[in-house]
Amino acid sequence: MSTAVVAGVLDCCTLIYVEIDQNSNKVWQGKVTDDGCFTAQWGRVGSKLQSKTYQFSSVLLAKNKFERMKREKLRKGYTEAQLIPNQQPQTTTISSEDLESIAAKQIHHGGDVRSKQLIRYLVSVNIHEIIAQTNINYDVSTGKFTTALGLITPNAIALARDYLLQIAAMKRSNSRIFRQLISQYLRLIPQNLGRKLDESVFRSPQELQRQYEILNALDAALATTQPSMKEKIFECTLTRVPGSTTEGKNTFRWLRQLYESTLNTHHLASQYKLRRVYEINIPSMRRAFSKKAAEVGNVKLHWHGTKASNLLSILQQGLIIPPANAIQCTGRMFGNGIYGSQQSTKALNYATNYWNQSGDNEQRVFMLLCEFAMGKEYHPHNWSQNLPKKGYDSTYVTPGIAGVINQESIVYSTEQVNLKYLCEFV
């Protein structure tokens, strides 16, 4: 019986060329193997690539051909795609068994079946947010996310964020620079955008928000699936508040009363009812909060609503404060901070896509109950002021004041927030 011998790869590269003005979204890949072959592949990103293999009498000649073609492409304006090497993109179907296996390793759930199911769902919806909106693929055999060209690097995601921020800030009068920024962004996050590259898509706040959420999801997913990372990614627990114990029943009743006592019947979200409650403990977040709360005081409970697909990232790193010019369809009229509300349905609207129509409207509905260390509060009379106000630790907006209908609270440091409960609504 003969054994097939697979040639080893000695050198390879992936080059990408994206130019909105030319409607170009092209890729070129070269590979040299130890049997003296050089293979080139080329075509439109996300499409089936054409391929040609050259057989040489020596590896040196194959390498020379590879280097000549690579230099030629670089001179034409191609750039090297920022991919983790030796990875081949592979599209697969994600089964619930695969997701459960991944999720069970990340977050402590105390053996509770409902909590385990919830964790699996949060991983699932995080993955779905990526693959449903772009041609980002998930390989269950390796547990990695890839673009149409391979596994992207964390550095590529970071650079893409910078470009996306510049795209969002660009004025319509600078259309040439605007197109260049989009081209650079798509070189970092390759996407199959069809046969026609339309710059006007990136004028839409919804598209900018969609791209921003894709980067967030990729960040969280990449961190949880890197096989080289031995440390615990999720230092947290998520345990269901039991309905079978007196303490659990009392906690549920208290949270239901807190939710119902502050809902606004004019909000669309007021139709939702509290279904389940999960207690959250992120030790690093709790320790930082305890220190800050002891310093500034005035701790209050606030609701914070978010899409289910964002929860995996929140459980990984807590609530974050985006850069001052970060992409957000939901406004931040009182400065760049973490927003919460004592008015339950004001926050719940953010979990039901009332404010933001991007993404999947079929996600389950959750809201976080958080501790906010408000410290010395500033009460603004209008929203045009430069906030945070010097000498104050937070901003407290009273309903009917500063042009807002609902109560809002804003803190400007992540150390001022601690997650207590994750509440699910139906």
How does this model look, in words?
- It holds the Pfam family WGR.
- Residues 222-426 form the PARP catalytic domain.
- Residues 6-92 form the WGR domain.
- With 426 residues, the chain is α+β, with helices and mostly antiparallel strands.
- It folds into three domains: 9-80, WGR domain (q64v53_bacfr protein fold, Single Sheet); 85-231, Poly(ADP-ribose) Polymerase, domain 1; 237-425, Phosphoenolpyruvate Carboxykinase, domain 3 (Alpha-Beta Complex), CATH 3.90.228.
- Helices cover 33% and strands 22% of the residues.
- The protein contains ten helices and 16 strands.
- The strands form four sheets. Strands 4-3-2-1-5 form a five-stranded antiparallel beta sheet.
- Helix 3 crosses helix 6, helix 4 runs antiparallel to helix 5 and helix 4 (154-169) runs antiparallel to helix 6 (205-225).
- The longest helix is centred in the middle third of the chain and has 21 residues, at 205-225.
- Residues 87-99, 225-231 and 355-360 have low confidence and may be disordered.
Shape: elongated
Beta fraction of the residues? 15-25%
Task: Kindly state the number of beta strands.
Answer: 16
The largest pleated sheet is described as: 5 strands, antiparallel
Q: Write out the strand line-up for the largest beta sheet, numbering strands in chain order.
A: 4-3-2-1-5
Which spans have pLDDT < 50 for at least 5 consecutive residues?
87-99, 225-231, 355-360
Task: Give helix % range.
Answer: 25-40%
Distance between the termini: 62 Å
Total domain count: 3
- CATH-level-2 architecture of the largest domain: Alpha-Beta Complex
| Helix and strand run | EEEEHEHHEEHHHEHEHEHEHEEEEE
Q: What is the structural class?
A: alpha+beta
Number of helices: 10
Mean pLDDT: 82
Radius of gyration: 25 Å
| CATH fold-level label of the largest domain | Phosphoenolpyruvate Carboxykinase, domain 3
Output the CATH class name of the largest domain: Alpha Beta
